[in-house]
Specification:
Elements (H helix, E strand, L loop, with lengths): L1 E8 L3 E2 L35 E2 L6 E10 L14 H7 L2 E10 L3 E2 L18 E2 L5 E5 L6 E4 L2 H5 L2 E2 L12 E2 L4 E12 L6 E9 L38 E9 L1
Antiparallel strand pairs: 1-4, 2-3, 4-5, 5-12, 6-11, 7-10, 8-9, 12-13, 13-14
Length: 249
């Protein structure tokens, strides 16, 4: 058996970021994380100092490969005949898992330009709202805020020259668990083998929401306070399986 496990505790601080998960867009006036948390006040860039868009406090990664102890020469059924060994011998199990704490997110200032007409900037947080994963029983929508209507009122437009509150909230982190099952047969012709693989991605069908897709703009022109903080996308993909048969010569 081979395995690797690592845990990282970290904190990354900067005045602007370019997180790969955010992507690149020039559409519309919103700039939460787009092009990497733009500097809305070029005269005082340090006012934008906060945790990076990709900051993760805790991160765990693990991977493993294990040969199952069945079949000829193994602990179980070590004297198996050729037919039985072809069925139970030579199996290998592998896996890959990752888990992180929440990723940072900000609230957009909406159609207000306190400093730079090119960039709308970020809203100023007055009180830290209660955050988490809250599901609306009526619509099934998942929200970052326990009370979206109240949370919207806990942010305001910065004064002229202000930059707002950058990355003061945390949405979901990332989680994944992939597994593989494989077996190899040695064929009669020398140097030829046949390999079977069964791979499952996101075994537990984990769901983690993308904080960059929340509706978080004040004052809201396109959304009602009820939708403030509603998630619109995922960091994870649904469970997928694939099978493969490989002939090597």
């Amino acid at each position: 058996m081979q395995f690797d496990f690592n845990y990282t505790y970290s904190k990354s601080i900067d005045i602007t970021s370019s997180a790969a998960r955010v992507g690149y867009s020039l559409v519309g006036y919103q700039n939460i994380g787009l092009l990497g948390s733009k500097l809305s006040n070029a005269f005082f860039p340090n006012r934008n100092r906060a945790v990076s868009d990709y900051d993760l406090t805790h991160q765990i990664n693990a991977n493993w490969i294990a040969n199952l102890p069945f079949g000829r020469g193994q602990r179980f059924a070590g004297n198996a005949n050729g037919f039985v060994n072809a069925l139970i011998g030579g199996w290998q199990v592998s896996g890959l898992a990752r888990w992180t704490t929440g990723l940072p997110v900000s609230v957009d200032n909406g159609p207000n330009w306190p400093t730079d007409w090119q960039y709308t900037g970020l809203a100023q947080m007055l009180v830290h709202p209660k955050t988490g994963r809250f599901k609306d029983p009526a619509t099934g929508a998942v929200n970052l805020f326990a009370d979206p209507a109240t949370a919207q009122g806990e942010f305001t437009t910065p004064y002229p020259g202000g930059t707002g509150s950058r990355n003061v909230l945390r949405g979901d982190g990332y989680a994944s668990w992939d597994m593989g099952l494989a077996k190899r047969w040695n064929l009669p012709k020398e140097g030829t083998t046949l390999q079977f693989r069964w791979e499952i991605f996101n075994v537990a069908n984990l769901t983690r929401f993308n904080a960059q897709t929340i509706g978080a703009t004040i004052p809201s022109l396109a959304e009602s306070p009820v939708n403030f903080g509603t998630y619109g996308g995922l960091l994870t993909e649904p469970r997928v399986m694939q099978f493969a048969l490989r002939f090597e010569f």
